[in-house]
Design brief:
eight-stranded antiparallel β-sheet; 21 strands; 14 helices; single chain; 439 residues; alpha+beta
Length: 439
């Protein structure tokens, strides 16, 4: 997988291939000073500014016809503070590089998402998360932020400094400024034991509360057109390390999860009638396995099959109902869904526009293979999620707008008021932000 979204003849495209933009110019600053100069110059030229990471968002959150800031030279660890147990990294650092560098230092983030291709600023600004009973999104692990605001000044924020900015900017959607550095809480490197096993859809839903309560990290994948799921439990372990063997790892993670899955997607796209049969075979292909390794090797896995995704956070108590409704909708529709539905959880947090802000949440993610029409499926799914006051992931496909967000986010007005203060002239505006935050 290429780590950056592709750009040909001045056109920028995202990873999923469903968003394209033609910026007036692209800037790759090598320092915070160069970035502030680029922001000031854009303002003088009457151009909007957007920073883009690796283009892993399926929304047009980073698209602009103005100045596109590429942060790939703003990478690496600035400082490690072992007393405070924090690490400060440049905004363009890919999560993969951060995770590997921390492991070499005997350190780790507490929780992470399931891929690590994104930049730290892109991942946190859109609310990227994994699954956790007690530990929340990547943004919830932020202890400090540095950002360049619309007037070209550099603003630092934390719980002590500019706490109102800190509350919002951890998941700032690129609307409050351009993040230049992030300070994360870290902890000594630990081991996780992963237990993956198939389980029936009905059993997972019947036992969901216990599975959630008994495991630090629980998630599952349901294969539409089947009654089958694949469950994954990750819990801390005293060791010893027992990583997945190289051959087994290649077979399960590369051959089955990427290679065979890719071929199955091609077949399904060409002949949708075969999808239910393929789903039954796919859902039984992965066998139970248990392994113990350092966190990033357990939390994350390679994703080489390209797709488009929608994900909503519903109140955790509403999860079982929402999933039953989703299954009933798929069963009575002519839809043929070849990608599994992913289900994860997060505890309530205190970030203004976090999908888990103020409420214990469960995430339901629906996917379609890149190049397959996804509108009918996503529209029907979105109807179910919004009936449960679902909040869409900021970086994934949805049709919600500011009016809707004002209803499902109690602190929505707090965010827009801060934006009015930090970016009164809307230097960081684009069509997506106009829709989700209002003009």
């Amino acid at each position: 997988m290429s780590t950056t979204a592709s750009g040909k003849n001045g056109t920028w495209r995202n990873w999923g291939g469903n968003v394209a933009a033609r910026p007036a110019r692209e800037v790759t600053p090598a320092s915070v000073e160069e970035l502030t100069a680029a922001v000031r110059r854009a303002a003088e030229d009457g151009l909007k500014v957007k920073a883009v990471g690796t283009g892993h968002s399926f929304t047009s959150i980073a698209a602009t016809d103005g100045v596109l800031i590429r942060p790939q030279l703003l990478t690496g660890i600035r400082t490690i503070d072992r007393e405070a147990m924090t690490v400060t990294v440049e905004a363009g650092t890919p999560l993969k590089r951060l995770n590997m560098a921390l492991a070499r230092e005997g350190l780790s983030l507490t929780n992470m998402g399931d891929i690590m291709e994104q930049t730290v600023s892109g991942a946190t600004s859109t609310g990227t998360h994994g699954t956790g009973r007690d530990s929340a999104s990547i943004a919830a692990q932020i202890k400090g932020l540095e950002l360049v605001t619309a007037d070209g000044s550099v603003l630092s924020c934390s719980e002590k400094d500019n706490p109102d900015v800190f509350a919002a900017a951890r998941i700032g959607l690129g609307a409050l400024g351009i993040v230049t550095a992030i300070t994360f809480a870290v902890e000594p490197l630990f081991l996780l034991t992963a237990r993956e096993e198939p389980m029936s859809f009905d059993r997972v839903l019947a036992e969901f509360d216990e599975l959630w309560a008994e495991n630090e990290h629980f998630e599952f994948y349901w294969f539409p057109h089947t009654g089958n799921t694949n469950t994954k439990r990750n819990n801390r372990s005293a060791g010893p390390e027992k990583p997945v063997g190289q051959l087994a790892g290649w077979f399960e993670d590369e051959f089955l999860s990427n290679g065979v899955f890719q071929v199955a997607q091609w077949v399904g796209r060409a002949a949708p009638a075969t999808i239910p049969t393929i789903a039954k075979v796919s859902s039984k292909a992965l066998s139970a396995r248990t392994y113990t390794d350092i966190p990033y090797k357990v939390y994350t896995s390679p994703r080489r099959v390209r797709f488009v995704e929608m994900e909503f956070a519903v109140p955790r108590v509403a999860l079982v109902d929402a999933l039953r409704e989703l299954r009933a909708m798929v069963d009575r529709s002519p839809l043929r869904i070849s990608f599994p539905v992913e289900v994860r959880t997060a505890p309530a947090d205190d970030i203004t526009l976090s999908t888990a802000s103020g409420r214990d949440s469960a995430y339901i993610a629906v996917h379609m293979f890149k190049g397959t029409p996804y509108q009918a499926y996503f529209t029907a799914a979105e109807r179910i999620f919004t009936a449960h006051e679902g909040r869409p992931h900021w970086g994934k496909v949805h049709t919600r707008d500011a009016e809707y967000f004002a209803q499902v986010y109690p602190r929505f007005g707090e965010f827009t008021a801060l934006r009015d203060r930090l970016d009164p002239d809307r230097l960081f505006q684009n069509d997506y932000l106009r829709r989700v935050l209002g003009a």
